[in-house]
Amino acid sequence: IGWYRHCGLIPYTQDVDFGLFAEEYDESIRQYFLGNSHVYLWGTLGLVNDSLEFRLHTGQFTFDLFWAYREDDHRWCGYQVKRVKYRRIIPLLAKLCSGDLFGYRFTVPCSPIDYLNNEYGYNLWRKPLEKNYTWINVKYHSIWDDTLWMYAIRLYTRDGKPRTDKYAINWIANQLNSSPQMLSTIRNILLRNSLNN
């Protein structure tokens, strides 16, 4: 929407979203961003086969990489609020075109107006809003159970190590809507994850 409507970034945006095909996921992508000196992996939500999202930081900007899963006549990306799983439905595009953004070429829908109408509603995307944007293509799917959601959230230090500090525990506990009694369980899982990486 920024590329098409503003010919650049949305002036008041807080992050930039990218979509990638889930079937092209490779663990080397995660490894590339862990500890990357320019754009580092701050955290992940979801699992490789379910609603995966990477949150990247430069120290100044945030980038969200959403993995798009193919299903029947569409793709979907996971959108997660606390433990609630939503799916953002994206139509299959017969072909993609190329667009310039700040001197770099990006793959874009060949019919951007149709795509934006599908995302935000017919012509609703034309009026810039600083907040309270809604997508018409986001549908409730399910709720993560406690165990899967604890494994589906990972935070990383700037040098690429799994975070097991108080901040990470409290952040994950907040995402879980969990009680203080669950903190020891979260801590144990974080420690186990850090040993496995």
Describe, in plain words, how this protein is organized in 3D.
The protein is α+β, with helices and mostly antiparallel strands. It has 2 domains: about 160 residues, no CATH class; about 35 residues, no CATH class. Helices cover about 25% and strands about 35% of the residues. The protein contains 6 helices and 10 strands; from the N terminus they run αβαβββββββαβαβαα. The strands form 2 sheets. Strands 1, 2, 3, 4, 5, 6, 9 and 10 form an 8-stranded mixed sheet that branches. It has a two-stranded antiparallel ribbon with strand order 7-8. It is globular and about 50 Å long.
Strand content: 35-45%
Main sheet properties: 8 strands, mixed
Structural class, please?
A: alpha+beta
Helix content: 25-40%
**What kind of assembly state do the chains in view correspond to?**
single chain
Gyration radius, rounded: 18 Å
- The termini sit apart by 37 Å
- Low-pLDDT ranges: none
Total strand count, please?
10
